[in-house]
């Protein structure tokens, strides 16, 4: 997806990562976008406006008090013909300003006076990122509809390691491209399950599996980018909910089933979760003590959430995932027919857990369609396009 013809206002705030915004500006222009840069006073201490002027080909906005343009109301006009405002890097201080609706410099005023989507790419020291006020401000921004891109984990300019590093310029361009993608699921309600389930044995132990939840979260984000209203019913993972996606947290398969049924009706149900097939029949009320005699657990089968949803009279378009270690196509096709699914995504079980990439095979009534190995975000976007082609 090219960004040709798109107008972007790139806001740069004060942080070491401002140097990466120069590369971001260059990449955005390379994809065909037109870029206007607005810098805070602190940003100008890290990189000079002249650098951004040269890279964007336009004068850089730095102050509210420059009356040289038009009627002197740059804070109103500068966002009137843009498609997005992207603030990268967004410092902790700038996020705080945005969350409180302050407008004490040009960039914050532009954000306040905007009528276009606002995306922010936070960049800060890991302690500043995890500080309670920053997290409060982020929650407020997300509730206000601001898209938060990143941050990533990694080594920081201060020498510490942790969450807070700005996403790389190429990743930010990919996010904007996804935002610009055709909204093939606009107006649709999409329900996604993700992650493992946890079936308790006693108050401190349980049965679970190694699903990371990454694929399900990527599918939820891709559905959101395609314009859908997305609910993500998630088992225990350490992932952050994609912004703009409503997440319902569950532990057991029974809780996942209840949460899914409560979210129906939906247009599409994508069951990515690795639901435990069995639960412990009688959960011990107290911590089990070890015994030389060993331990015998009686397991009862869990309800099959996907099969139940697919069998309903008001069934959404149901998509299953099947991880197999052998005879991939034959087992997966049998599963699709058994659960009566219009679409099933088959992958090798070895790819399911932990890896960042996967090779997928989409099976529907028309046959099979290979999605060659790629990262999970790319695969999720391709899957969403395929689902949309079925719906439309
Ligand atoms: N699924 C579900 N509820 C369950 C079990 C599975 O909704 N109790 C969904 C999964 O989210 C996935 C698909 O069904 O979309 C997987 O089907 P399943 O037959 O359970 O696959 P496996 O667990 O891989 O089956 P098996 O162990 O028999 O290979």
Q: Which fold does the CATH topology of the largest domain refer to?
A: Rossmann fold
User: What compounds are bound to the protein?
Assistant: cytidine-5'-triphosphate
What's the CATH class label of the largest domain?
Alpha Beta
Instruction: State the total count of DSSP E strands.
Output: 19
Task: Figure out the total of helices.
Answer: 15
How much strand? 25-35%
What is the topology, as strand order, of the major beta sheet?
12-11-8-13-16-17-18-19
The overall pLDDT, averaged over residues, is 92
CATH superfamily of the largest domain: CoaB-like
Computed over alpha carbons, the radius of gyration is 24 Å
**Under the CATH scheme, which architecture of the largest domain would be assigned?**
3-Layer(aba) Sandwich
| Biggest beta sheet attributes | 8 strands, mixed
Unreliable spans are none
What percent of residues adopt helix (DSSP H or I)? 25-40%
Distance between the termini: 20 Å
Structural category is alpha/beta
Brief characterization of the structure:
This protein has 392 residues and is an alpha/beta fold.
Describe the 3D structure.
With 392 residues, the chain is an alpha/beta fold. It has two domains: 7-180, Flavin prenyltransferase-like (Rossmann fold, 3-Layer(aba) Sandwich); 189-391, CoaB-like (Rossmann fold), CATH 3.40.50.10300. It has helices at residues 18-30, 43-46, 49-56, 74-77, 92-99, 106-112, 126-130, 132-143, 169-180, 214-225, 253-263, 305-310, 328-338, 349-352, 376-391, and strands at 7-12, 34-39, 84-90, 118-122, 147-148, 152-155, 161-165, 189-194, 199-202, 205-207, 229-234, 246-249, 268-271, 278-280, 299-301, 317-324, 343-348, 357-364, 367-375. It has an eight-stranded mixed beta sheet with strand order 12-11-8-13-16-17-18-19, sandwiched between helices. It has a five-stranded parallel beta sheet with strand order 2-1-3-4-5, sandwiched between helices. The chain has a two-stranded antiparallel sheet with strand order 6-7. Helix 1 links the parallel strand 1 (7-12) and strand 2 (34-39). The model has no long low-confidence stretch (mean pLDDT 92). It binds cytidine-5'-triphosphate. Cytidine-5'-triphosphate binds at residues 193, 253, 271, 273, 275, 277, 302, 304-306, 320-323, 335. Cytidine-5'-triphosphate binds next to helix 12 and strand 16.
